[in-house]
Task: structure prediction
Amino acid sequence: MLQSKLKSARFWLLSGVGSVGFLGLWAVAAQSGIVPSTFLPGPLQVVQRFVQMTHEPFAGYTLQIHVLSSLGRFLLGFCLAVCVGIPLGLSMAWFRFIDRLITPLFEAVRFVAPIAWVPFAALWFGTGIGGPVLVIFTGAFPPVLINTYRGAKFVDRKYIEASSMLGAGSWRGITEVLLPAAVPSIVAGLRISAGLGWQSLVGAELIVASSGVGYVLVKGQASLSTATVMSGMIAIGIVGLLIDVLLRKLQQTIEARRGL
Result:
């Protein structure tokens, strides 16, 4: 117990030292004048701008509203990826003909970067919500499908054979055998999926959105306000970290209950 606490304290100490060191180097570089303050504001200036954007609208809205707008798009695209990826991955693991039908197309498409779908999103949906949702889906979908498929595919065959011998049909075999066994792998995939989906969202909002944190970056760059751009980046990082923490807690809870 004591050793665990010492490791935790050492971790937080090193993390604090690293953070303070980074902020110190940043402040020194900003104060040195080597780079004009317009392009490299100091940490204090960025914090002041961040706080200012929480109560003064920028690009039409306060920073909180932009973040909520981005979260709404993210949740739609992410939930769509989950609702399609998990059932499809389980079906591919259970039905060989579905696996053979989907795998070649999926293997070809999954290597296309989500940002490559932005022109289609702009053409098909303009600046509406459909464009960012499409881009988020293309980033979040592959990890969900892959982890679901792998988690279900490596289920011990004896359990599948036992369920068939007891008269379980395909539906019960998928929901009562494959799905419970694949849950740890699925949750691990959700963490990867959420990270890629959130990154894809920001890329989409740079081009096909009229609100959101990605839109803040565009407008900040257009007005030559580096502090605004950095404030948007901080908001992106904080939200992404919170999403990962929530999914990590879910993963730890599931693993603890399953004795993993």
User: Anything to note?
Assistant: The two ends are 20 Å apart (CA to CA). The chain has a mean pLDDT of 85. The chain has two domains: 1-34, 41-257.
